[in-house]
Amino acid sequence: MNATVSAEDEPPDIPFTKMQGCGNDFIILELNTDHYANLHKLCDRHFGIGADQVLLIQPSDVADAKMVVLERDGSQSDMCGNGIRCVARYLIERKGFGPNVRIETRAGIKEVLRVEDLFQVDMGAPRNVFSFTFHFEGHEYDCVFVNSGEPHVVMFVPDVDQFNLHACAAHIRTLQNLPETRVNVNLVHVVNETMIRIRTFERGVEAETLSCGTGATACTIAAVIARNMQNTLTVITRGGPLVVDCTQNPILLGPADIVFDGVIKKDRSACNVPLIVFE
User: Fold this and answer.
1) Is the alpha carbon torsion for 23, 214, 197, 174 positive or negative?
2) Which domains, from first to last, does the chain contain?
3) Which of 24, 69, 72, 194 fits 77 for a cystine, CB–CB 3.0-4.6 Å?
4) Going along 161-265, which residue ranges are E strands?
């Protein structure tokens, strides 16, 4: 993939694509820069475009492209399971790649395959998996920590809708036995032997999102370990279903939808950065 940078003295309008996977929404930009400045401000739903994350597509020396995940709070994440499917669709439909696409992330190179109207991602082997118990509001809950590309705590509860997810996440993040304190937190309810319902508090967004791909993956891994469930589960998120197969490396299957295309104008204040043009 070759790229050229436009003239800095006359910064052009920057095209973007708004995409979503099960309601987890993204601003897709082709930008080759290490200076992310205020790009995260585009995520503001009142003063920006509105999204959970900004995803930058950049050239890669080791894969077809590189994905950089910029969170709403300005931090950078290692991986995004819903986002990488959206980036894969963008590369396949807009840039002529596919049907297999290899995408470099901070969590390693991930291969994405188009399967009819859906996209499946090899999420790679999970890391730092262990179980523990957590006391919250007078009750004890089974939990599993797993890094599925991002660090997650998975907590099994009788009903995901009856819990204050934000309060629960705040308490879990104070625990001293976790490899990282700034973790994603998931509530899981086992529906049956092949289905779970989840809610996810995402770090970086610092709020609940409608869906989280690395969260769905972590919850499936945890359900197999802690609840002896089948290796392939349907994961019901608030934004729709995903399927995770943990027979070997976890495989995440789900949609990637284009919402609309737009342009960030020259007089933008949020992102004065050079534009990448793919050839």
Assistant:
1) negative
2) 3-123+256-278 (3.10.310.10), 127-248 (3.10.310.10)
3) 69
4) 184-192, 195-202, 207-209, 232-237, 240-245, 251-254, 257-264
**Encoding tokens for residue 194?**
């092949």
Position with higher pLDDT, 35 vs 103: 103
Spatial CA neighbour of 235 closest among 197, 202, 191: 197
**Pick the catalytic residue: 22, 43, 143, 212?**
212
Taking the CB of residue 196, how many other CB atoms lie within 10 A of it?
27
User: Cα–Cα distance between 47 and 13 in angstroms, integer?
Assistant: 18
pLDDT in tens, 110-144: 999 999 999 999 999 999 999 999 999 999 999 99
Told to judge if 212 belongs to the known catalytic residues of this protein, a careful annotator would answer yes
Of the residues 22, 43, 80, 168, only one is catalytic, namely 80
Measured between alpha carbons, how far is residue 145 from residues 4, 54, 130, 228 in Å? 42, 26, 5, 16
pLDDT of 103 over the 70 cut: yes
Nearest-10 Cα torsion for 267, 53, 113, 109:
100
Residue 275, pLDDT score: 40
Tokens found for residue 241:
């279903």
d(CA 157, CA 152): 16
**pLDDT (tens digit per residue) in 65-83:** 999 999 999 999 999 999 9
pLDDT tens digits, 32-69: 888 787 899 999 999 899 999 999 999 999 999 999 99
